[in-house]
Every structure is written in C-alpha cells, then in structure tokens.
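Reminder: ligand-aware prediction takes two inputs, not one.
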Amino acid sequence: MLSLKPLMISGAEVLPLIEGGKGISISTGETCGAWARAGAVGTFSAVNADALTPEKHIIPQLFTGTTRSERYKEVILQAIKGGIAQAKIAHETAQGRGRIHMNVLWEMAGTEEILHGIFSRAKELIHGITCGAGMPYKLAEIATQYGIYYYPIVSSARAFRALYKRAYHRFCALLGGVVYEDPWRAGGHNGLSHSEDAAVPEPPYPRVVALREVMRECGLGTIPIIVAGGVWWLSEWTDWIDNPEIGPIAFQFGTRSLLTQESPTADAWYKTLLSLTKGDVKTTAFSPTGFYSSAVNNAFLSELQDRSSRQVSYQETSSDTCTEPIHVGARGSIAYVSAADKAHINAWIAAGYTIPLRTPEHTLMFVTPQKALTIKSDQATCSGCLSACRFSGWCQSEQDSTRPPDPRSFCIQKTLQAVAHGGNPDAELVFAGDNAYRFAEDPYYDNGFVPSTQQLIDRLQTGF
Ligand SMILES: Cc1cc2nc3c(=O)[nH]c(=O)nc-3n(C[C@H](O)[C@H](O)[C@H](O)COP(=O)(O)O)c2cc1C
Ligand code: SF4
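Here is what comes back for the chain with iron/sulfur cluster:
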C-alpha cells in the first residue's frame, strides 16, 4: 500500500487522485460522481455534453439552423444545457463526497458564454474547472466571479508563466492547482510547442521541476501540481511523492480511467483497448483544432494518413516545372503539376482516387468520389463547435468565415459524438494516451475484468 496523503483540492481534503476530463461525453456526470464518491476528484466534460430527457435518455444533438452561425448558437445553448445536466448527475452520484470538477477546451466555440451559462445556474454543484487546449487567460477571472477553483492545463513552465504574468496574478486565491500534462504521453489533444518534436519525448521530471520553480517565483510553492500523462501504476512514481523538489502533487488518470463500470464507452472500447501493443497509439497533427493529438492508430487515423499521402503541389499557370494540366472541381478549372507528380496522379486515379481537392497549402489531394462527398457534406453541415476550425474554415470571431477549408483534416465533432454514442471504435477517432497498451499487460484486466471506479481507486492506492 502506498502512503498517499490526502490533499486539499478545491476546498476539501481528498485523495490526490483525479479523473482526467474526457470529451465528448467520455467522462460524464456518472463517472465524475463515482470518482468523487470514492473520495477522489471526478471530472465531467462540458464539451458538448449530453442533456437528458426526464426519463434520463440522452437527447441527440441535432442542429437545425440553416447557416453555420445559427447552428453555432444552438451548439452553445445545448452545451449549457448538457453541462448543467452532467453537473447535476455528478452531484447526485457523489453523495457529498470528494470533489467535482468540470473540464472544457478553451478553443471550443463560445467557451466564455458556456462557462457563464453553466456557472450561473449550477455553480453550487461544481468545485473546480480544468481547462486546456489553448491559453485560457480569462479562465481565472470567470471562475473567480463564481467562486470556483480553477486549474489551467499546461505542458511547460513557460506556458504557466505566461498565464500567470498576463492574467492569473490578479486571481491567485482560487488557483486550485496546475495540471502538468505531458505532451508526449497524455491522451487527447496535447500541448506540443513548435520547438518540440512529437517523435522525441522528453522526460517529465525536469519539466515538472521547472514548473514548480516558476510557481515558487510566483509565491505558489504550496499549490498542488497535478501530473497527467503516462501515469498507470503509482509504484512507478514513488520518488515523486513527498518529494520537496516538486512539492505537493496529485495524479491524473485519463487513459486508465476509460475502463470502469461507470465509463459509458467501457463495453464498446474494451476489445480495442485490450488489443493494443506498444506503439499502437499515435500523435498526429490532423485535428481541426490545430493541436497535436494522441489517439489509437486505427482505420480512422490510417484513412487520414493515406489521404494526406495522396497529395501533390500545383500551380495555377504552367511553368518549367509544372507542365501537366489537371482538371479540378465541378467547373473543371485547370491546375498544373509536375510530370513526376502526374505519374503518381495517374496511379491514384486508376485505383479509384479520382477527385482532386484543393488544400490551403496549394496542394491537391486525391480521394474517391464517395470520400469527396462526405468531406463536402461534413464541411457544409458544420455547426461551428470550435472557435476556429481548420477542416471547415469556420471561425467564430468572423461568423461564417471564408477561410479556405482543409480537406486533410476532419469534423472532430462528428466522429467524437459517434464514438461516444455507440460508434465503432475502429472506425472513429479514439483518443488514448501512449500507455494504453498497458491494459493488455496489466493482470488486473485479465479475464474481461472491468473494475468499478471504487475498485480502481482502491487498486491505485496499492501502487498497481
Ligand atoms: C479519450 C480521451 C479524451 C480526452 N479528452 C480530453 C478533453 O476533452 N479535455 C482535456 O482537457 N483532456 C482530455 N483528455 C486528456 C485527459 O484528461 C488526461 O489529462 C490524459 O489522458 C492523461 O494522460 P493519460 O492518457 O496518460 O492518462 C482526454 C484523454 C482521453 C484518453
Ligand atoms: S467542421 Fe469543425 S467546427 Fe464544424 S462541427 Fe466539425 S469540428 Fe466543429
């Protein structure tokens, strides 16, 4: 048994064990409430969360507006309704124990409006908010307005310093902790900077020490750091616990918490997760958010990789290098490619990839007619769920912008909604951390065993 000392988190003493927030609808009021009821910290996702009927059936998220701007407004209203519904479930399930946190992505659509909408009606049910994916400068001010503790998610000391210097120094009282999310190991979107190489992971310890140094400079030496990314057995982290160099810490579990009896996707994802071996989770740059993200390298990701590999540069007019004409688009406008690329194109066309689509980087990407239709339809039915979307070109500040859409990306709303609500986990985007292969190696999960959240939390305290 490890000696895990309770920690003050969001105003109460709890186990230093935290459920990582997982959108869309993967960490829910039910999972969050179960983590809290076990004396730890649960986190429900308020990213397009599900609202429920009085009979507790999920209300399908359908957007009826005829323009993206109209659908964007519906997204925000539904997100507020869904966030409040999940907060209520978490509160009822927790039975007064533990702490309830809510997670949002700063770069989702209408974040500020959604936070005000949820907090103004449910602030007494929510103890803390965690927020990453972007630089959430306004998070501190909004959370403080409602008396809610806030937890920025950062992947470097530098990012925290910027948040503190620009905004958080004025709102220190409710800074509950800082989540250090390892950008090479954590599941979901991650905060790799341009100077960091997705293929060259750095060890986390010096980066967390650097974060603590910055926090000490800011007078935040006793505020917990929550370590996320690559945490599985706590017996592997004993030299981090009670270590004066890094100070008070808690551990966040995103991937391991996918398989509990309360998790809505545990049944559907069990086979996929238990079949993974080391290296089956990949970090890619396809997400329409513009962030790197870490997901199971399944048929969904393979299709995106294949799609991008059928790509050539083009010019609008012929030149010494681009001599070969290609018909592009319904109106058959002409683009010019090199002779070598024309040979590739001929091979792709022969294999059925007959439709060229323009990308914002002046390339043509070849897809099947069916795929071209799907891409165009997904772009046309965009509901504006992100503040800016690379795939559809939507940008909330410009309302229905005409930025060039990028067909190499995809509608993350569509696939994450699908996989959270019964979609095939081999055919949709399945976010997972680098250590997901450990489900198959960890004897705890032998013979189809799926723990309840209470059992998982008891197990984590044994160090395994
Ligand atoms: C399926 C999945 C979805 C996730 N979605 C989110 C999210 O919406 N917001 C967020 O801040 N983090 C998200 N994460 C990250 C987790 O909250 C957590 O920090 C991370 O998974 C920890 O690393 P681990 O995967 O090694 O346990 C997600 C992770 C997974 C596996
Ligand atoms: S196309 Fe982009 S902004 Fe539109 S719904 Fe899909 S992910 Fe959201």
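The chain has 13 helices and 18 strands. The longest helix spans residues 68-94. We will return to this case in the review session.
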